[in-house]
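Service request form, structural biology core

Requester: graduate student, group of Dr. S.
Request type: structure prediction, single chain
Budget code: on file
Notes: please return the result as structure tokens.

Sequence provided:
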Amino acid sequence: MIVVAGEALIDLVPQGTGALADLKPALGGGPYNTAVALGRLGSPTAFCSRTSCDPFGEALLDGLRRAGVDVSRVQRGTEPTTLAVATVDGNGSAAYSFYVEGTADRRFTAPAELPAAARAVSFGTCSLVLEPGASAYEELMRTAAGQGLFTALDPNIRAGLIPDADAYRARFRSWLPSVTLLKVSEEDAQWLGGTPREWLAAGPSAVVITRGGDGLTAFTRDGAEYSVPGEKVAVVDTIGAGDTVNAALLHGLSAQDALSAEALAGLGADGWTRLLRFAARAAAVTCSRAGAEPPFAAELGEF
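Core staff response, request fulfilled:
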């Protein structure tokens, strides 16, 4: 089982370009999208989070259940659901404003234990920024790593939520010894500072950099580098594309029985190229439709 830990929220998705476009509510949040994508791809998946008891919270849980995701570890609260208002530019790229004060997902507490079947735990986005939940997710990351589980991290930077950029960058570096696979977008890599080689030296077994339509590159601790081009597609928007990459990487690693640092080190050129191409195909499908709508396994074929 792959456990995804982090926020679930409602994206208010514009039905056009510009700040005053009509908004349509959609299920979202980086970790939430990753969990749904994993479920749609057929990976046994559990979601570890805290959601509201309001109608949005119920809708979020229903979306996970429809994707086949185990929600038994989701905590509940009476606080409202976090809202993320997206603005899409003429190229389909999305920017976000967040309404997070007093919301349910911020009150997450680290569980006493993870599911016995857990082989990997994925972390990222707002849940690692907003306290007091951020410290609880950080605790869970360190615990999972200490238990020998495969840990994946996608910081998925939302700069508007980060009051002290330097403090966050230092905190990010403190996570690296507990991370097996680090995935960052090219833009996030620039914001964070440092290089894949520097990050690898701090702990991860591999770093994957996404470059939008230009593809993906993986860097490994043995000095190797593997790249694939992006899949050509008519882009509607990029919402959920990076989250789909997270899911595709984890699903593909699971399919290759490579959810461990040792197995990751032995993946080789063929394994990495196959994995990155699968992730590129999956992300392209998500970009071809509005909102975070990751592909089902039947749309991609077997890994």
